[in-house]
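note to self: dont lose this again. the chain is below, predicted strucutre after it. 161 aa total, dont forget to put it in the shared folder this time
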Amino acid sequence: MPDGWYGEELQVGAALTSKESYDCPGDTSKTCVKGGAYSAPAVVLGTRGDTAEEVAKADISANAEESYGGESYGRITSHDVLASKAVTVAGQKGYLVRWKAVTQKGSDGFVQSLAFPSPDRPDQIVVVRFGVDTDQQQKILDEITEGIEVAEGGRGNGQDV
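---
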């Protein structure tokens, strides 16, 4: 876990969030954070694709909009593709797409969609969505990606809560 970040389990995945926050530039009644990442099955996010590459490429635009679009930062005015490549995550062959999203108001952001087959259910693709302000270093995205491991033991079938 990166310094200055905390983690939590979600109903369908996990999240890491920067402890550093500020008033959102587009809507100062809301709070924005310097960075975050969360995982969820592609099917839960509504992201289509049969391979990790297809899913990562299909997800990046929605991820950018969720992370840096809308009221919090105004609209995304443009983006640069920084990476689109195969990676190994938790022993699985995955794929990541990384953009620099340029916003209308406030900080621009690095957004990354990382997709890989679930180690426990290879027919299910997991997506990790990242959003990190550009005043942070891109290496935090790599650090989190490299730190993803297979979960030890299960807590049930994920249906009974």
